Amino acid sequence: QLQLVESGGGLVQPGGSLRLSCQASGGTSNRLAMGWFRQAPGKDREGVACISSGDPTTYYADSVKGRFTISRDNSKNTIYLEMNNLTPEDTAVYYCVASGFMVQVMCSIPYDDDYWGQGTQVTVSP
């Protein structure tokens, strides 16, 4: 059973940066698309950024384009989310996801059948 463990969340001031990591174990994550969802209090879970398994195709939500960058290191079974110019609206629990769907599909809706991490809190506040 594939397991995903996120790290790197925390408290940051507006305009600051954070780097999230997600390490996969217990399965073949290299063949799966992976990505990040987030869920703010009182809001639905939304896809933030996703990356394909092979020749890296990426997808970003409009709200993070130009500020967030997703990458993966298959040798380490790890994906990263570099977040810059953070705003309070980015405050949420960020979840790592692994999926057999294409990135545009996996990032559009949170599928229960995908693999999910436990989440890491990101708080952007003065």
Q: Helical percent range?
A: under 10%
Strand content: over 45%
- Specify the structural class: mainly beta
Main beta sheet strand tally, sense and closure: 7 strands, mixed
Radius of gyration: 13 Å
Question: What is the rounded distance between the termini?
Answer: 40 Å
H/E element sequence: EEEEEEEEEHEE
- Tell me, briefly, the overall form: globular
Uncertain spans, ≥5 residues at pLDDT below 50? Answer: none
Number of distinct helices: 1
Protein architecture, described:
It contains 1 helix and 11 strands, in the order E-E-E-E-E-E-E-E-E-H-E-E. It is mostly beta strands and 126 residues long. The strands form 2 sheets. Strands 2, 4, 5, 6, 9, 10 and 11 form a 7-stranded mixed beta sheet that branches. Strands 1-3-8-7 form a 4-stranded antiparallel beta sheet, with no helix packed on it. A hairpin with a 6-residue loop joins strand 5 (46-51) and strand 6.
Note the main attributes of this structure:
126 residues; mainly beta; four-stranded antiparallel β-sheet; 11 strands; 3% helix; 47% strand
List the topology elements.
Layout: E1 3-7, E2 10-12, E3 18-25, E4 33-39, E5 46-51, E6 58-60, E7 68-73, E8 78-83, E9 92-99, H1 103-106, E10 115-116, E11 120-124
Parallel strand pairs: 2-11
Antiparallel strand pairs: 1-3, 3-8, 4-5, 4-9, 5-6, 7-8, 9-10, 9-11
